[in-house]
Amino acid sequence: MLKLCRVGIWALLILCILSLMGGFLGVLHPLGDSLAVFRVPFAGLAMICAFILRRDARAALLGAVATGVMLVNWLNHSPAAENPTAQQLTLYQKNMLWRNDGNESLMEAIRTSGADIVTLEEISRENMPILGDLQADYPVQQFCPFRRVGGVAVLARGVTATNRLACAEDLGLAAMEVEGPTGRFWVAALHLPWPWPHEQAEHVDRVVKRLEPLDGPVILAGDFNAVGWSNAVAQIGAAGGMARVGPYAATFDLPPLDFPIGIDHVLAPGGKGEIEIQPKLASDHHGVLAHLPWPDTPQ
């Protein structure tokens, strides 16, 4: 019986290590981004199995690999807080939930935050009135429809829209170029489908093709349905000359076990800025409040 348990623990350890390594291969196959969602539990479970089998040098080595992955993951996605002196732009990012119980608390939170830019996802037929309700506060708006769950929108104040990216069918991307105090830049809202076996990889390719031709700095926020270390986030960031802002933070509880994952992100030039996680309010996603430097237009 003891031998059978040992074999089972070895099988679980090997499976966790293979899944852990597979999570780094999103560039080769979209399955990698799906495995990457569970990088932390895979590594944690592998470390537990390795500890149980610690008298075997091979298990100890695999445990060290899992520990190394955890450390690298933490160091790479926990940047130090910044204290910039440049004039700050405030952005409020929120997936509203298409079937929520009302948006009064969200509108109050947005107004209280003093956000200059707001990015919204899942603007369904029921949620659509929020755009009109916030029109006086945020007169510059760009909305694009997206599936039954609802469209995406960028709302802004204190800036002038100088260009708008045409909405593409079934893409979930809304973007406009605005003139701010430091020059022109693009701001976008994005909603991606879930990763493999869903069609996220195809959408990422389409989004990249839309972002690459944009001239000037880009700020993009949204519900990526992908964790911060995924290939999807990396590809989109590279396409717009952006990096993820702030440390990795949970924004959604993945059913059925409500496993907390971070899938709502803000991308900005150089990844400069800070984020604060906001309450869920009437949604199933936490909001993200970002404080960013106003982008400088290249000379």
UniProtKB/TrEMBL annotation:
Source organism, top-level taxon: Bacteria
Gene Ontology MF, one: endonuclease activity
Cited Pfam families: Exo_endo_phos
Residue stretches spanning the membrane: 7-28, 34-53, 60-76
Residues covered by the Endonuclease/exonuclease/phosphatase domain: 99-285
The keyword Nucleus is annotated on this UniProt entry: no
Matches recorded under InterPro entries: Endo/exonu/phosph_ase_sf, Endo/exonuclease/phosphatase
Gene3D superfamilies, alphabetized: Endonuclease/exonuclease/phosphatase (3.60.10.10)
Record's keyword terms, sorted: Endonuclease, Hydrolase, Membrane, Nuclease, Transmembrane, Transmembrane helix
Keyword NAD: no
Protein name listed in UniProt: Endonuclease
